[in-house]
Specification:
Order of helices and strands of chain A: HEHHEHEHHEEEHEHEEH
Number of helices of chain A: 9
Oligomer: homodimer
Largest sheet of chain A: 7 strands, mixed
Strand content of chain A: 15-25%
Strand order of the largest sheet of chain A: 5-6-4-3-7-8-9
Shape of chain A: globular
Structural class of chain A: alpha/beta
Largest interface: A-B, 63 and 63 residues
DNA sequence: CTGTGTGAATCAATTCACAGCT
DNA sequence: AGCTGTGAATTGATTCACACAG
C-alpha cells in the first residue's frame, strides 16, 4: 500500500455497516436519518458516525440530519461499489462451492464472474449453475473483462501458489480463506478470513467469561 | 462481558497466530525460538510478541529465548484449548455443509459435535458422514455433553431466532456467519464473520490503491 | 433549538529503550 | 554478549464539547 492509509481501517469497516443499515432503513421507508438514529441502528455512537463520515466530506445538513438514500449512495461510491464488482472464486472444493452459491454476494451487488480450480477432475463440471474453468484461464479472462477480487478457497498447502497466479493474472484484491499469510506485491490488497482463528479467539473469550 | 477486557482484543488475535507458527516451527524440528524469530514468522515485531505474552506471564528465559513447545502449550492453555472444544453447526445449507466438512477444524483440535437445522426436510439426512438433528435437540444434547461454540450458518432472516435458541440451550459462544448484529445476553460471546462486508472493505482498499 | 462537523482531550495500542537475568 | 520483560514515550483511535448552519 503506497502511501500511509490516512483512513483508519476500523472506520472503513464501520462504513460497510452504515451502508447496510441505510439500505434497511430506506427499504423500511425512512428518508431522513440523524447520526443518532443511524448509530443506534449500527450499535455505535453518533460522534463515531459523524467522525467516520468526516474523513470523506460532509454529507448532512446541520440541524436536519442526512438524506438516507443520498448518504447511502455516497457510501457506496466511497466503498467503490458504484459499479458492480466482479469476483472470481478460486478453489472449488466444499467451501468454494458454498461461496459460489452464496446468495448474499449477488444480493449485495457483487457478481460471481467465474469459478476456477487447478484440478482437471473438477474443471468443466457445473457448480451452482456455472462451469468450472482451469486456473490457467484466469489471466486471459481477466484481460477480457476485469475481475476485481479473487476469493481464495483453496487448501492451505495450495494457497501461496494460487495467490501468485491470481497476482500474475493482474487481479488486485484477494479475500483469503486459507490460514496462511500470503506473500504478495505491495499493490495487491489481501484480507484474511481465518475461521479456525475465529474459533480460537472465541474459545479465549468464552474461557475468560467463565472465570467471570 | 462482565468486567472490562483488560486484555486488548488485537493481542488475542495475534496469540492465535503465534500458536500456529509455533506448531509449524516445532513440526520443523525447532525447539528453541526467540521473539525475533517468532515475530519474523508471524509478520509482527519482536516487542509486540513479548508485550502480548507479558499480559499473561513470563514464559521465556532472558538471554536465551523460549522453549517452542512449552510456549505453545502455554498459549493453548491461555486460549482455552487445553481440552478439545466441541462445536455445533447450526444451519446445514450450502455454507453449513461446507463447514461441517472443513478439515481445518478437526486438524486444529476442534470437534464437530453435531449438525442442526430447523428444516424437517433436512433433519435426519447424512451430511459429511453425520446425521442432521433438529435444533430442538440442541438443549438436551448440550446438557448431555457440553457444546462450547455454536457456528451459525443460517440465512440472515433466521439468524436472530437461531441465536436465541442457541443461547436458550445454554451455549456460551457463537461464531456468526449471518450479516446481522445478534442480540444476546452479556454472558454470551459472539464473533461475526461477514464475508460480504469483507468484500466491501476489500473493494474500498482496492479502489484506494488504484488512485495510487 | 436541533443536529452536523471538527479541533481538543482522552483513552488504547504500539513502539521504544533499557534494566536485569543467563 | 544475547534476549526477555516492562515502564515510558509515542502513535493512533475514540470521545468530548462546542462553534456553526438551518
Amino acid at each position: 500500500m503506497g502511501q500511509k492509509p490516512q483512513i483508519p481501517a476500523p472506520s472503513v469497516e464501520r462504513l460497510c455497516r452504515y451502508e447496510r443499515c441505510l439500505a434497511k432503513a430506506t427499504r423500511a421507508g425512512l428518508s431522513r436519518i440523524s447520526s443518532q438514529e443511524l448509530a443506534a441502528f449500527c450499535g455505535v455512537t453518533p460522534e463515531q458516525v459523524r467522525k467516520d463520515l468526516s474523513h470523506f466530506g460532509s454529507f448532512g445538513r446541520r440541524g436536519v440530519g442526512y438524506d438516507a438514500s443520498k448518504l447511502r449512495e455516497e457510501l457506496r461510491r466511497i466503498l467503490g461499489l458504484e459499479r458492480k464488482r466482479r469476483i472470481a472464486i478460486v478453489g472449488i472444493g466444499n467451501l468454494g462451492t458454498a461461496l459460489a452459491g452464496y446468495a448474499g454476494f449477488e444480493a449485495r451487488g457483487f457478481e460471481v464472474a467465474g469459478l476456477y480450480d487447478n484440478n482437471p477432475a473438477r474443471v468443466g463440471h457445473l457448480v451452482q449453475g456455472m462451469r468450472v474453468r482451469h486456473i490457467d484461464q484466469l489471466a486471459s479472462d481477466n484481460q477480457r473483462e476485469k475481475i476485481d477480487i479473487a476469493v481464495l478457497a483453496v487448501p492451505e498447502s495450495a494457497a501461496q501458489a494460487a495467490a501468485s497466479r491470481v497476482v500474475a493474472a493482474g487481479i488486485r484484491g484477494i479475500l483469503n480463506f486459507a490460514p496462511t499469510r500470503l506473500e504478495v506485491p505491495d499493490h495487491v490488497v489481501v484480507r484474511d478470513v481465518d475461521m479456525t482463528a475465529e474459533l480460537e479467539c472465541l474459545s479465549f473469550w468464552v474461557t475468560q467469561a467463565e472465570k467471570q
